[in-house]
Structures are given as structure tokens and as C-alpha cells.
Design goal:
With 494 residues, this protein is of the alpha+beta class. Helices cover 28% and strands 20% of the residues. The chain is built from 14 helices and 18 strands. The longest helix is centred in the first third of the chain and has 14 residues, at 14-27. It is globular and about 65 Å long.
Length: 494
């Protein structure tokens, strides 16, 4: 049954104006945390992390770091331009490390429909080629399994020819040779005395470049589409500060994992650990805690034995803890929402919340396993509607372009936030594979000054509701005059 017909999920349209008014004026514009240690209440403790690792302590990565800075890059246009700029700054003695689920060497980071030649110069292939000529060391781990092999093999062959050695490794050191995934989307770029990390939901691959207008522009078409989608909403976080050491440590451990790959022709030259340089913020800055999924099945195969011999499920533990601690609202963007366990934690939290707001994909997309996706999402989300006294707090939306009939915007974001104080974002969504099986990494972000999450939530809502980022009005789309070429329309799934 199509998600649009699942009226058990939905509130009536008349509630939307009240929802937006309450949340934007009284609910989401929250007080500033009273003290810096306000962030600690969201943080997984050492004992919680140990429990999420099969009672094995995590020694390779810090409990959390402070003095970090981060910016959220919404949509491909902003992410890929920033990545391009950072890679172009890398020179002799610097490095570029990347982990990717999907890949395309011909994707242009800065496409320009009026200048095809300049656009091609910004392709992944050409950008990495120039970096190698400047003396930059490149190391890439590309996901491969039997079901998804051709693109990864082609990509790595081309990049390895540029390098002259195996700088791009086909990595199947995950639980499933057939369908398991290295699902991480992460770039680490060292240039000079600083190191930049990009982490989130977006691969540099076909169909990911898009704008806030989601208007299927010529530039978008230059980079192809993703499984038939003409519009995609996603985000990446750009991080500087002490946290980059933890992200790089994770890459180092995965690259140097001694267990051989299933593909015998892949051989990675190990490298010695050296903490990358970083620039600290002068004030306390953002607190960031690394969260991962490293499956226990993969550990049984012999992977991660040097750093997670029984696997790690801090990604799941972090989402569940956030749900338990939220006092006002939980706002989430994700493509699936089909894993019952974390959805049960959110359902249990409804009595002490004002609202749960979900923006998700309709599961009506032209992808395989459509019926299975419908069923799994329905099964998980139905838990939010079981308590008839609390179900009015649940609001579930899809995004659509209002200038094209039935043209939805594919939601690929992996982001969960609470109370304008805390946000989790990374490569994993709220699905079983991302929280139990695939190789994933993300972070929990908290700002002692109470601005980071608030500002990001307002940016997201501004894009979805066709507002300027600084617009203070509590606006429902039913009371909004949409411009002729409106980029998106937030729509109740009905």
C-alpha cells in the first residue's frame, strides 16, 4: 500500500499551521543551555559505548572532543564547491583520504552549463589528477559487493592509473559479499596546517549535485541522475578542529585492517599513524562525539579485530539516547525510517515531547524492492500512532516541487535533532542495515552556546517552506504565497 494512503500516519492539514506556530514561536526557539556541560547529558558515556561494543572498551577514539567548528552544507551545490576548494589547496606533503559508497570519476564538482570545458576541469578525475601532480597523497576506499561492482571497479582502475599504484582500494571488508556495504561518505583533506573532514549522506556520484531550487537545472543534468530521481535533498557537514583526528583514525584503521579483501587483486600499502594537524577554536566551540556501525558479523569474519573485535553499535545507541532525553521536539530527515527499534524509542518518548516531525521519502521512488520498503517503513512508523492520546504530536511529510505535477524530491538526508540543542548526522539513516550491518560513521553535535543546531534547523525549514533563512515568521505552507517557480512544497503524506 502506498505511503500516501496510510492515513494512520497522518495529522489533518488544519493542524499544520498550529504546529508551525507553536514550534517556531514557543517550542523550537529554545532557551540557551545553562552551562557548557549541558552538552554532556546528550553524550554517550564510556560505559554506554563499551556496552555498544560487546563490552569492549573503545580506546582508539576519544569519548568526545571540544573546540571544533563545523558548517552544514545543504544540497550538492554547496558541498561539492567546498570540497573542490579544499582539495585545490592541498599540496606537497598533504593528503586526501576518502571512503565512498557510490562513485563516478566524471562527476563535476562545479558544473556550468555555459562552459563545458571549465566544468570538466572540476571532475573528480581531473581534480584528483591535479592534486597528485602537486605531490598530494591520495587514498580511497570504494565500496564493492557482488551486486554493486562494475562502477567501483571502473572508478578505482581509472584512479589507480592516475596514481601509478593502488591508491583506490575496492573494499568489501563488511558483513555481506553479496549485498553488504561500506556505506560511509567521508572525505578528509589535509592542506598545510589544517585538516578538513566532510561526513554525511552525500557521495560524489551521479545525481547528487543539486540546488536549493531542485529544479532539474542544466547543471544538474550534466552530472546525471540517481536511479531516476530528478531532485535530491541531502547534506554534508564540514568539520575542523580536534575531531578530525578521530575521523582520520577511523580511516587509518579501516585502510590498515589486516584482513584481506575478498578481491585478491586488491592490495593496500599500509601507512604509519600520525595525527593530522588541526586548528582549534578559541572558545569551547562544538562538542563532537564519533558514532559508528561496525557489525558483529563482520567482526566474526575477522574484520576490525585491532579496534572493534566485537563490532560497534554506537550509532544506534546515540539515536536511542537522544530520544530518551529530548524534552520538546525531535526533528528527523531520512530516506527510510524502517527500523523498528529506534522508532520504538521515539514512540516511547512521545509523552514528554511536544512534537515529532519527520521528513522522509515517499518510498514511491523508481527503485527496486519498492513493496518491501513500503512494508518495512509502515511497520516501523506505525508504532508512533499506537497511542491515540499521543498520535496528534506526530507529523510526517514528503517534499514535492510545486511547479511539476507529482515530482517529489528524493530525501537522502541522514539527520536527527532534538530541542535545538543536539544533532546527530552522518552516513547512516534509521534503517536496519545502517544501524546494524553496514560500515558507517557519523557524529553527535552540541553547541554550548545553543546556536548551531537552532541555526541549522531554521536553514532546513527555510528551504522546505520557501522562506529566507532569517525569516522569523511562524509560517504554514497553507498560508504561504508560493512564487511561480517555487523550489519545494512541504506536503503532508496523505
Amino acid at each position: 500500500m502506498c505511503i500516501r494512503d496510510r492515513d494512520r500516519y497522518l495529522t489533518m492539514l488544519k493542524f499544520l499551521f498550529l504546529l508551525c506556530t507553536a514550534l517556531l514561536t514557543n517550542g523550537l526557539s529554545l532557551r540557551k543551555p545553562e552551562a557548557a556541560n549541558q552538552c554532556l547529558r546528550w553524550t554517550l558515556t564510556e560505559n554506554e559505548i563499551t556496552e555498544a561494543r560487546g563490552n569492549v572498551k573503545r580506546k582508539d577514539i576519544k569519548l568526545y572532543t571540544t573546540h571544533n567548528s563545523a558548517s552544514i552544507l545543504i544540497d550538492g551545490i554547496n558541498y561539492m564547491k567546498a570540497l573542490y576548494d579544499d582539495i585545490e589547496l592541498a599540496g606537497q606533503g598533504d593528503f586526501i583520504h576518502a571512503k565512498m559508497f557510490d562513485q563516478n570519476a566524471d562527476v563535476m564538482l562545479i558544473p556550468n552549463a555555459s562552459d563545458a570545458i571549465s566544468s570538466r576541469k572540476t571532475s573528480v578525475y581531473n581534480v584528483l589528477g591535479r592534486a597528485l601532480k602537486r605531490g598530494v597523497t591520495v587514498r580511497i576506499l570504494a565500496n564493492i559487493n557482488i551486486m554493486q561492482s562494475y562502477k567501483a571497479i571502473e572508478f578505482c582502475l581509472r584512479i589507480n592509473l592516475l596514481c601509478g599504484y593502488t591508491c583506490c582500494g575496492l573494499d568489501n571488508r563488511h558483513p555481506g559479499i553479496i549485498t553488504g556495504n561500506l556505506h560511509t561518505k567521508m572525505w578528509i583533506v589535509k592542506h598545510g596546517k589544517d585538516t578538513i573532514v566532510y561526513n554525511g549522506g552525500m557521495d560524489v556520484a551521479s545525481g547528487r549535485w543539486d540546488t536549493q531550487k531542485h529544479d532539474f537545472s542544466l547543471e544538474h543534468q550534466m552530472n546525471g541522475d540517481f536511479m531516476g530521481h530528478n531532485a535530491m535533498h541531502d547534506q554534508m557537514v564540514r568539520i575542523t578542529g580536534p575531531a578530525v583526528v578521530d575521523y582520520e583514525r577511523h580511516f587509518y584503521e579501516r585502510w590498515n585492517d589486516p584482513h584481506p579483501s575478498f578481491f585478491p587483486f586488491v592490495w593496500l600499502q599500509g601507512y604509519k599513524w600520525s595525527p593530522p594537524p588541526f586548528i582549534r577554536t578559541k572558545n569551547e566551540g562544538l562538542q563532537i562525539q564519533i558514532m559508528r556501525t561496525l557489525s558483529c558479523t563482520g567482526a566474526k569474519y575477522g574484520y576490525y579485530k585491532d579496534f572493534a573485535p566485537k563490532g560497534e553499535f554506537t550509532a544506534l545507541a546515540g539515536i536511542v539516547k537522544m530520544a530518551k532525553l529530548a524534552k520538546n521536539y525531535i526533528y528527523m530527515e531520512d530516506q527510510f525510517f524502517n527500523f523498528p527499534e529506534p522508532m520504538k524509542a521515539i514512540a516511547d518518548a512521545l509523552p514528554h515531547l511536544n512534537a515529532v516531525i519527520i521528513v522522509t521519502d515517499s518510498q514511491d521512488s523508481p527503485t527496486s524492492f519498492k513493496n518491501e520498503r513500503w512494508h518495512l517503513q509502515y511497520e516501523a512508523m506505525a508504532q508512533l500512532l499506537e497511542d491515540k492520546e499521543q498520535m496528534h504530536k506526530v507529523h510526517i511529510f514528503n517534499l514535492y516541487r510545486n511547479d511539476v505535477e507529482n515530482d517529489y524530491i528524493y530525501i537522502h538526508t541522514k539527520m536527527f535533532m532534538a530541542d535545538d540543542e543536539y544533532m546527530i548526522t552522518g552516513s547512516y539513516g534509521m534503517e536496519r542495515a545502517g544501524l546494524t550491518s553496514d560500515n558507517e560513521i557519523g557524529g553527535g553535535f552540541c553547541d554550548p552556546e545553543g546556536k548551531f543546531v537552532l541555526e541549522h534547523r531554521r536553514k532546513l525549514w527555510a528551504e522546505h517552506l520557501l522562506l529566507k533563512e532569517d525569516d522569523p515568521r511562524p509560517v504554514s505552507y497553507t498560508h504561504l504565497t508560493l512564487p511561480t517557480k517555487a523550489q519545494v512544497q512541504i506536503s503532508v503524506v496523505a
